[in-house]
Amino acid sequence: MEGVTDALNADAVQSLASGAPEWLQNRRLDAWATYERTPMPSTRLEEWRYTDLSRLLELDSLEPLPWSKRTFDRASAPASLDAALEADREASGRVVELDGSVAHVELDADLAEKGVRLLSLRDAVEEIPEVLERRLATEALPATDGKFQALNAALWQDGIVLVVPRGVRMEDPIRVTRHVSRTGQAIFSRVLIVAEPGSQVSFVDEIVSEDLEEQTLFSSAVEIFAEDAAQVQYVSLQRMGRGAFHLAQQRTIAGKDSTLDTLNVTMGASISRLDLNARLMGPGANSDMLGLCFGDGDQHFDHNTSQDHDAPHTHSDLLYKGALDDRARSVFRGIIRVAKGSQQTDAYQTNRNLLLSEHARADSLPNLEIEADDVRCSHGATVGQLDQDHLFYLMSRGLSRPQAERLVVIGFLGEVLQRLPLGGVVEKVSRGIEEKLNG
Amino acid sequence: MPQNEVVQDLGLDEYKYHFITEDEPVFRSGRGLNEKVVREISAQKDEPQWMLDFRLKALEIYNSKPMPTWGGDLSNLENVLEDIFFYVRPQDKMEHSWDDVPPNIKETFERLGIPEAEQKVLAGVGAQYESEMVYHSLKKEWDDKGVIFDSIEDGLKNHPELFREYFGTVIPAADNKFSAMNAAVWSGGSFVYIPKGVELDTPLQAYFRVNQEQMGQFERTLIIAEEGSKAHYIEGCTAPVYSTESFHSGVIEIVVKPGAHFRYTTIQNWSNNMYNLVTQRAMVHENATMEWLDGNLGSKLTMKYPSCYLMGEGAHGSVLSIAYSGDGQHQDTGGKVVHAAPNTTSQIVSKSISKGTGRSTYRGLCQVHEGATNAKSNVECDALLINETSRTDTYPYIEIEEKKSNIGHEATVSKVGDEQLFYLMSRGMSEEEAMALIVRGFIEPIAKLLPLEYAVELNRLIELEMEGSVG
């Protein structure tokens, strides 16, 4: 029973489960049973080859944070949260989450009238139990998927649920801002997005914190369903302080003729691990998967992605780029799987890394598993330093070396943002890059 | 997909090396692998104590290592290994004159065209039958220049100090489970020494044949290319098709000294009941070049990743690999390059064709250590899928610890395009001609580096299979 500690144990699950509807109690308890019998991932597993949890994760010292009713007061918001909100642009709805508990939800009145639901996971259990019973930790991220999927499914304290009814299109994004202030805690949060047929939505999920003294775990489980011909954009912006261990599990399920694009920006935390699985389940489904990371100090980023083509005529295109300074290291492991019968599939995967320091390190494992013949698949990976020709050109135009280097790095990472230029996101990420370069 | 039905077979499937020679070996070990077998092999070879100790230690390592859980399906391998003979001695001594080789063995190699090739194009020939080299010869002009091309056993006997200095240094017994197995029971293979500055203008060739049912072949080759030398070594492998599974696990160690240039070519066409698990590695020193040319056409399962450890400044390594997987075959191949010195360069080009239920896997490693400044590496993998049931995988590992390096990997998977076929047919080609041309074009970058007779053979096989496939 690896990973069962004084604080993370069956009692903690019991206390969360008590009083909940029966289906939810069972789901939590089953998830915990799965957690107990699943061994802790070790570097002997391909997917954890470069991230040694026995060294990096201090599970024994983590306390699960109980849910508590929090209220949000903009005036007394901590600096990082205030800055994140300050930089936001227009939104169709907003959510503020404090230490894993949703403290504020607002939604455009027109959209509410059209049947859009934006609410905390706790409220959703009361108000739309039929949606949760069907979708929460079932089809997309069941506990049986892995140790941490199980842990989150057993111990989640709150989260965010969005349901967009058939045909409803939202002009502006839903913007979620999360803040973590409690050091040494383990926070388990979930996101569930259901875009019904023909609907359209963008969702920006930002998490910020100050530096945290002790290791603090933020576990996020994100489940996204794009039903037939729906269009969904999901953006995760992770700018936590040092001390944070950010553990994100995301699964997207794209139905017939739908578009389900994701952008994962990783700038903060000491350790960040992302598992993203995009499933293309209906003919005509399309997923663009974008990622950008910038590491410095001794940050450790691990991105583990998969593109599963389970239907013919599906298309996916992944671009992950990383810049690494100081002793930072990044891991990219991506796999394209084309199942038997998924003919006429196009699947692409590109990972590019820029090493800015002598001691930075990048590992890249772009994999392909192809079991259909009428496909177009390719992948590419590069690791290198700043392009000397680009630097030379800029310097010949009168820029100093540091100025030229900054421009080249911004240009390198900027390509990712151009592919999903969502208002507010581009500015925030650009500023984050600038701060890192100045740092 | 009409063209897939039309082109039933792409070629290379028809196995023409299925003939069995009737003979009685002079010695055969018991079935399975144990200490007694290891001691028997060592005694048969009249080895020095250090080699017996080396073998026994390797056996311990073998027993302590788990079966790999990655790569191909090895689930039945343990059963196979219990039943096979680890050592089969076909004749009493190795011959240096073709006339002295026993008639039945001679006939085997004559059917494979070896003596003819020797006369025409080769600097030297070695032939291994079951567990032992049965024939080894080297043209006199090279012998006079100090080139050594001998069976590995004679290398140990006649050049004990040179042998011991290098043996097991490139691939230690503990490298992996199968290198440990080979270290315990190795038999046969070549010992090659190219003196300083000697450049061989024609290749050396070794030919490996397994004739007996249920046997394991464990050849071991050690090659030392001294400073500024240049040579090319070719190995070819075949076996008859039996209903039971056979096993081949070679270890090839190569030391390429400063400024030397060595090319190692394998054309593996084992019967498709053969497990072929091979470890091949070269230590490449300052300004030296190592080229692996790896052709995998046969076997049931091959797991083989020729590697270059670039140890000296300016070293260059390349792996060019072509794999063909027909029905039931799995070629799990690729290459490894490790950059451990500045200004080193490497290239891996891999092409695979999967047909029927065949599966081709590229698995590779590109590693740049901190301090290996200005390392450059480029990896390219292309996979061609012929049928709906074919499969291909690509698993590259890229591990970079040095900022001043330039590393790239690219892979594509495709099928023969309708547009390509249509274009060629609109120019008057039949569908089968068009298909053959496209496939030839796909493998051409590697085929052109093969010695002429192999390139011709490869192309001929593809054309042969195209003929009459339009029904």
Structural write-up:
The complex is a heterodimer of chains A (439) and B (471). Chain A is α/β, with parallel strands linked by helices. Chain A has one domain. Chain A is 24% helix and 40% strand. In chain A, the strands form two sheets. In chain A, strands 1, 4, 5, 7, 9, 11, 13, 15, 17 and 19 form a ten-stranded mixed beta sheet that branches. A ten-stranded mixed beta sheet of chain A has the order 3-2-6-8-10-12-14-16-18-20. In chain A, helix 1 packs antiparallel against helix 2 and helix 10 runs antiparallel to helix 11. The longest helix of chain A is centred in the C-terminal third of the chain and has 19 residues, at 401-419. The N and C termini of chain A lie far apart (43 Å). Chain B is α/β, with parallel strands linked by helices and 471 residues long. Chain B has a domain at 19-304. Chain B has 13 helices and 24 strands. In chain B, strands 5, 6, 8, 9, 11, 12, 14, 16, 17, 19, 21 and 23 form a twelve-stranded mixed beta sheet that branches. In chain B, strands 4-3-7-10-13-15-18-20-22-24 form a ten-stranded mixed beta sheet. In chain B, strand 3 (124-129) and strand 4 (132-138) form a beta hairpin. The two termini of chain B are 15 Å apart. Residues 1-12 and 465-471 of chain B have low confidence and may be disordered. The interface between A and B is large, with 36 and 37 residues. Strand 19 of chain A pairs antiparallel with strand 23 (391-400) of chain B, so a sheet runs across the interface.
Helix segment tally of chain A: 11
Domains of chain A, number: 1
Low-confidence stretches of chain A: none
Strand fraction of chain B equals 35-45%
The amount of beta strand of chain A, in percent, is 35-45%
Helix proportion range of chain A: 10-25%
- End-to-end distance of chain A, in Å? 43 Å
Mean pLDDT rating of chain B = 85
For the secondary structure, the number of strands of chain B is 24
Multimerization state: heterodimer
Q: Which residues of chain B form runs of ≥5 with pLDDT under 50? A: 1-12, 465-471
Apparent shape of chain A: globular
Helix content of chain B: 25-40%
Strand tally of chain A: 20
Q: How many helical stretches of chain B?
A: 13
Q: Tell me the radius of gyration of chain B.
A: 22 Å
Sheet/helix structural class of chain B: alpha/beta
